[in-house]
Amino acid sequence: MNKDYYEILGVERDASPEAIKKAYRRRAMKVHPDVAQDDAEAAEKFKELSEAYEVLSDPNKRAVFDRGGDPMGQGGAGFSGFGGGFAGGFDFSNLVDAMFGAASSRGPRSRVRQGQDALVRVNLLLHEAVFGVTKPVKVQTAVVCPKCTGRGGEEGSQPVTCSTCDGNGEISQIQRSFLGDIRTSQACPTCRGYGTIIPRPCGECSGEGRVRSTRTLQVKIPAGVSTGIRIHLEGQGEVGPGGGPAGDLYVELAVAEHEHFRREGDNLEVVVKLPMTAAALGTTVDVATLEADWEGSAPDERSVAVEVPSGTQSGTRIALKGRGVPRLRGGGRGDLGVTLLVQTPTKLDDHQRELIRQLAEARDEMRPEAIAAAKGGKGMFGKLSEWFS
Hints:
Blueprint (H helix, E strand, L loop, with lengths): L4 H5 L7 H15 L10 H15 L2 H8 L23 E2 H9 L17 E7 L1 H6 L1 E12 L15 E2 L8 E8 L2 E8 L8 E2 L12 E12 L8 E4 L15 E7 L6 E3 L2 E9 H6 L1 E6 L14 E6 L8 E4 L15 E8 L6 H13 L16 H10 L1
Parallel strand pairs: 1-6, 2-10, 12-16
Antiparallel strand pairs: 3-8, 4-7, 5-6, 9-10, 11-12, 13-14, 15-16
């Protein structure tokens, strides 16, 4: 023996079976005659490469080769020299397994299989997401056929063995090539790989054992959810072929924007307009809370009295602890942030104008000096712009 199969495959002598398979797959894709058509020696190289893989992938033949013996000698199946091709024929499925890492199917496949997961999207109002709700959700999925209860056949009809594949679920073909006889396997076209045939398929599901149906589920949505969160409902997805186990259902939530409130994590934010005189003198204002949208809230929770100190500036934010969003993980609630927007009067009668003029004279503000805001500070306009964005 003057061939070094390790050198042909380009692996070390202590290479693992997985490394040998990867090396063969990599080189076979380069020297296969269908790929390297410009190489006159491609067929010979591929035959030599396949011989090396046959030896090194077989523990017994590899042991014989490592001891200096002839693994293709007496008792060795496969090659019989370069001139004779593959003496015993070549199972193409083994080549596919080595080159592409996918073994061919063996035996009939089951009619009963696991169903797929399903996804539905549900729109929520802000108060539903904040306080939680039980929502009716329509789901269109595959369910067990009510007529045959998943069997796939009419009453009394039993599956019979496929005569084309004798129940194997696949058929084999042998083709001659320069490499010798190549055997390929494919799913039986008559039974589609099941190995059996249903003589009288169910008229409702056409033998699938399942049908499409729309059903309504009552989905409990916890308080504090937000857009993008998915609720997992085990076993509520697609029923599998043949009435197989159902997959899971995922309910993805999308929360609509509110007319007045804005959510920031576990906090709720609201802007309240305040007259200039009230901001200057100080006052108490009643601010509606999000509970006003929720029928399950107590009447005294639907508004809150906010103390506005005298001299309050536009853009001032007052935080009301525990009036925000319930924390989805953990206890307690966030804050309700009330941002005050001081409004300057635009329509004044003569009496009001005179009063304001007298105030300006008393405060020496008839010709006020413009003072630039501190660098780096957000200021009133920065805060309001940030809120409205």
